[in-house]
Structure formats: C-alpha cells, structure tokens
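To assess whether ligand presence alters the predicted conformation, the chain was also submitted together with flavin-adenine dinucleotide. Input:
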Amino acid sequence: MAAGAGLCDAEAVRILTNEAADCIADLIKFRVPFDTLDGEIALTREAAHSVPRVMHAGGDATGEHIELALSRQVRSTPIRVLENCLASDILVQNDRVVGVRALDGHTGSVEEYGCRFLILATGGAGKLFKYTTNSDVVTGDGIALAFEAGAEITDIEFFQFHPTVLRLPGVAPFLISEAVRGEGGILRNAEGRRFMPDYAAEAELATRDVVARSIVYEMKKTGSDRVFLDVTHLPPRLVTTRFPHIYRFCLDHGLDITRGLIPVAPAAHYLLGGVKVNSGGETNISGLFAAGETACAEVHGANRLASNSLLESIVFGRRVVQRTETAASPGNGQPSTGACAYSLPEREPLATAPPLNLSGLQSLMWDKVGIVRSGEGLQEAAGILDSWHGLLSEPSDRLSYELNNLVLCGRLMTEAALLRKESRGAHFRTDFPRTSPEWQRHIVFRKDVSS
Ligand SMILES: Cc1cc2nc3c(=O)[nH]c(=O)nc-3n(C[C@H](O)[C@H](O)[C@H](O)COP(=O)(O)OP(=O)(O)OC[C@H]3O[C@@H](n4cnc5c(N)ncnc54)[C@H](O)[C@@H]3O)c2cc1C
C-alpha cells in the first residue's frame, strides 16, 4: 500500500495477500522447484520489503520455472494450444464478447473463433521503449484490442523502470535482479562513489522509481550513460550460488562480477496499468476477462512492489478461472463514471511528423514519456503519436499488427501522463514535481466516453 502511493485498491491488496499462500501451494503441487535452505523454502528480499519474503527457483530463474511447470500442466490436458497465432480483434455483440479474430503466423490467414468467455493474458507493453527488459512479444496487444472493443484502460500513465539493467556495449539489456541489492549490492556512480544514501534513507533498497531517478541524476552529473553495481565485497560463493544465471551471463560477456563492477542503467520493465478489471478479473464488457500484466486490478497502484507481479498473475488468474466456472451468465464490471473517465482527445494535425517506425516510436517514448517527464515533452509526443495514429495502415503481418497496437498504447500512456498534473510513484513530471491530493484518483480511458 505504501509503495502504491495512494492508488492501491485495498480490497484487491487484501485478496492478493490472503490468497497468495494457497496459490503458491498450487505451484508447488505443479512441481515448481522453489529453492530451499535447510529443508525450508528459501526467502529473499527486494526493494522496499520490510522482511525477506520472495520465493525463488533455480536461483534467479523463477519465472522460467513457473512457466515451464504451468505449460507442462496445460500440455497434459486436452487444451488445444495454437502456437504462433496472433489475436487481432475482439468480437463483441450487444456488449457481450462473442469471439476473437486471429492471424495464423504459419499460413498468414485470419480465422475467427467463437467463445463464451475470452481471457486476455497478453502481457505488458515494454516494447514501447528503446531500452527494456521485456521480450519482443510484449507489445501491448491485449490493451489495444480491449480498448478498440470498448473496454476500459486505467492507470496506463504508470510504467515502472527497473533501475539496474546491464549496460554493456553490443549486449541486449539483461536484468540484474533487485535481489542483488537485497543481498547487499551497492550502487556507485562513474566516479566510484556510493550515491544512494544521498537520495533516500533506504539507500539501495528504496522503491524502484526513487532508485531509477537517482541513477538518471547521477548519470547526468557524471556525464556517463551508466552507473555501477558492486558486489565485490560479498562472499563470492554467495554471489555464484544465489545468482547463478546473472553470474554466468556476465562471465560469458567477459565480466566476473565477484571481482569487477557491473555497469548498469535503468530500462522499461513493467506496465502498472492496463485493462481495468474487478476482483474477479472481469472487464466492463460481459464475458471479457483479463489477467496478468495486461490487466489492472489496482493492486500495484502507482508503483509495483518488487516480486508482486507473478503473484498477482497467479492469484487473479485463478479468480478468473473460478469466475468463469461458476458464472452461468457472468455479470460485468460497471463502466466508470464521473470526472475520471476520458476518451482520447482529438488533436490538431501536425504539419510534419517524423516517419513512423518501431525504433522512432521507442526513442520518442524513451525520451519524452520515460523516467523523467515534462509537460512540454509530453505535448510534443502526444502530437506526433496522434499523427501516427491517424496514418496507420491496415496491418497485414505480425509486425504491423504489433506496431499499430504499440502506437495506440503509446497514445493512451502519453495522454494519461499529460492529464495527471502531479508526480506520484512511477509517474514523475518536472513541471509538477509534487504529489497532489486532488489526483489521488485513477484515470480511465474508454473509446465511447461522451465529453
Ligand atoms: C527480466 C524480467 C524479470 C522479472 N522478474 C520478476 C520477478 O522476479 N518477480 C515478479 O513478480 N515479476 C517479475 N517480472 C515481471 C513478470 O515476469 C511479468 O509481469 C509476468 O511474466 C507477466 O506475465 P503475463 O503472463 O501477464 O505476460 P507474459 O509473460 O508477457 O505472457 C504474455 C503472452 O501472451 C502472448 N501474446 C501477446 N500478444 C498476443 C496476441 N496478440 N495474440 C496471442 N498471444 C499474444 C505472448 O507471446 C506471451 O506468450 C519480470 C519481468 C522481466 C521482463
């Protein structure tokens, strides 16, 4: 609740914490090999945690082990899995979802699938940014599809940047887990000086937004594009056993982290907002559900506490399944009303906009809608994005579908960031550097809000 900076929904947080243990027990039943110490589950600590409470598997390969265990589970059932198949439109009739259209990546044909319920679990939108920890498939598809179908999108101005991502020339961004700082790693600027105590009492364990911004300021001060994470004072055995994946990855790129400093910089990591859902994962469209990073149950508020997203996925994912099993005729979340519901504004067309391509979009978002924002930069980005949106061509393949979806997500994020005239959690504006009580509310976008 503290990290969420006043925007967590108390009931959603209660559900997350109350149902976590049961859901984790399910994962153990599905044979996720969580690490143990002396026969007990091993726990670690990450930013802003009061006590060690993060379970992990394979040292630093938790997500991979959960994913492998769950896909093994799916493969053992009659569920039909369509690989390389891209959902491209949600089909809605009389405010009820009736199906989905999808592009078959093998044949190039577009097929329609009817359904009673549709569950979006398409992940976040990290590919909006030039530097990101996210994989190439994280292109905001679910959010764009849901918005086009009439669903509500909320909190999309809040995007979390991970403070410590490996910055080595020619090496793709690679996450240096926060648990490295949790185990005692120290941040030093390009001059070798420890700087986090200058910015926060919690020093390296301050919340992610504080650490990411502090790094940006230090990089600016020292004229460098990186800072350094130092674990050379920790026992080498702790580093190699607790972080085998990170140790091996760096070693493969010529860096022994038990002896040398790790060059790091922030990168886009996690989308806090998304398709607005209630505590059963339902959207405002009957039969349409969302779970995982694409959904927003207002659990994280303005700033996710480290390690809570996998937990959110399993807790609220299970609630979606329970809801679809019990709902003979599902109810739907009510549409938002009042001052917080908006449609996308119409802007004056720009006389000239740069040509649209993925890297141009990612640079624009990184420079103008990134870690430190300003009204002026956001206005500029909003104008360009609006022009691009107006000129989008009919998509024909995966990349063009994804680019179109990213442009729409970029517009939603930029317009929400412009509306929110304050700084709160992951959203920081130089022209409104303080948190304003007036803005302790959620921004919701819907296609058909009458102004
Ligand atoms: C490097 C890294 C480390 C992380 N570490 C942690 C951690 O330690 N703890 C934690 O809690 N969280 C962590 N996170 C965050 C967490 O991993 C994600 O929030 C979580 O995996 C999101 O799961 P998801 O199932 O919602 O989406 P994803 O895992 O992104 O899966 C989305 C799936 O949907 C598919 N898809 C997308 N669009 C379409 C479409 N149009 N049609 C069909 N399929 C589509 C994608 O191909 C993908 O398979 C980390 C994230 C990263 C990137």
